[in-house]
Amino acid sequence: MAVHMKLHRVTRRYDGITALSEVDLEVKNGEVLTIIGPNGAGKTTLLRILALLDEPSSGEISYRGQRVDRSSVQEYRKRITMVFQRPVLFNDTVFENIAYGLRLRGLEGEEVAQRVNDALSSVMLDGFGSRPAKKLSGGEQQRVVLARALALEPELLLLDEPTANLDPTNAHIVERIIKNLRGRTTVVVATHNIFQARRLSDRVGCLLNGKIIDIDRPRNIFIKPKNEIIRKFARGEFF
Amino acid sequence: MSEQLLDIVLRSLWISGTALLLSLLWSLPLALILGLRRFRGRNTIISFFNAMLGVPTVALGLFLYLLFSRRGALGAFSLLYTPTAIMIGQAILITPILISLLTSAIEAVDPRIRDLARTLGASERQASLTILREARKGSILAGVSAFNRAIAELGIALMLGGNIEGLTRVMTTQIALGVNRGEIILSLEATLVLLAIVFTLTLIANRFRGD
Ligand SMILES: Nc1ncnc2c1ncn2[C@@H]1O[C@H](COP(=O)(O)OP(=O)(O)O)[C@@H](O)[C@H]1O
Ligand SMILES: [Mg+2]
């Protein structure tokens, strides 16, 4: 599989704390890659860097083989979208929340309405368009923000703990949507849920203290780990 | 409503409305910078405008009077006793209100909104506009508070306008000076209209703040 996005020796420091340490990562085209690791491992930081929302302190990023730099970052950012761990919504209707990014891409009128309605259908929220987004339940909000990301048809979708705050029913809906994207959209999911990683992933990356200590197919992480550390990690002993 | 009263009311609305727009010309960009950026001296600037909130209108009136009078630095423009003079005076008067309230409205927006806008494809500039849009309810409240302060003040209208009938007479100067001329009814009517305008706008603005 072709490489979609590549990090080369990426380090991210927050005054004093090294959140990511010389990370090398190749995200492959169309795969579902999950990043597992305990709280504070650096998952959110890694996703923000992949989303081009945050700049590495050092290291290089390339997108489909092209080096990403200051002058091109805005262009690449339009092809990627990130869904944050806790839903962030504009103080507006569900429709306007989803239409926002579409309008930024120059879409208008019927086309926007069509894409918004399709996106709402895909998260089973048909008819929710006119509701004030912030008045919805937590699970509904999480599905709206997912619909908002899906409506953009991004090349790369980044999901930060997409089911961490959801009840089992909503979590199931979200997982099914992720599975449906496999092969068409590149998806990177950060999670501290090992079972979810096993269910969803083409590959699993194990992140610990800002380093990717292993990245492989689920069976090579969970069933035949290459060493004792990965075995313990996959059992959640560092979590 | 008598023609005389209507004339005064419309002039008041026109002068203070223009003062609001004029003040927004500099207050809005400054509030955007103060609300969105973090830089050295920012807190000092915000404290300065908070301190300026309490400046008495007659103090500002006197200062501008000296500036606009024939011998003043801006005497050449013959602004004294014109509607323009009142507009400028009120625009300066409400600058601290606009900046303080607009800045807090922008600051109150969830800081994650900027990253949200960016990840949905917004440029930095578009993201800033989105933040302003999220602050719209607080911004309307800021505009209404500023307008109410302008239309209800007396010192500037009196000292810079001079209460000239048909030219600079506004509701507050009619209320204050009409009594001496025996125009008690007209002054009372002007008071009622002024109160009605201020209360109505405040009620509408608070409606907005509600949800
Ligand atoms: N904005 C920030 N400022 C300072 N430290 C941060 C910031 N974001 C993350 N960190 C630190 O970086 C480390 C990794 O955090 P994060 O990427 O959020 O981990 P995870 O998502 O795996 O829980 C933590 O020690 C965290 O405290
Ligand atoms: Mg996190």
From TrEMBL, chain B:
- Gene Ontology CC terms: plasma membrane
The record's keywords, sorted A to Z, are: Membrane, Transmembrane, Transmembrane helix, Transport
Q: Does the keyword Transport apply?
A: yes
ABC transmembrane type-1 domain span = 9-205
Alphabetized InterPro entries for the sequence: ABC_perm_TupB-like, MetI-like, MetI-like_sf
| Keyword match Methyltransferase | no
Q: What is its main location?
A: membrane
Q: Output this protein's name.
A: ABC transmembrane type-1 domain-containing protein
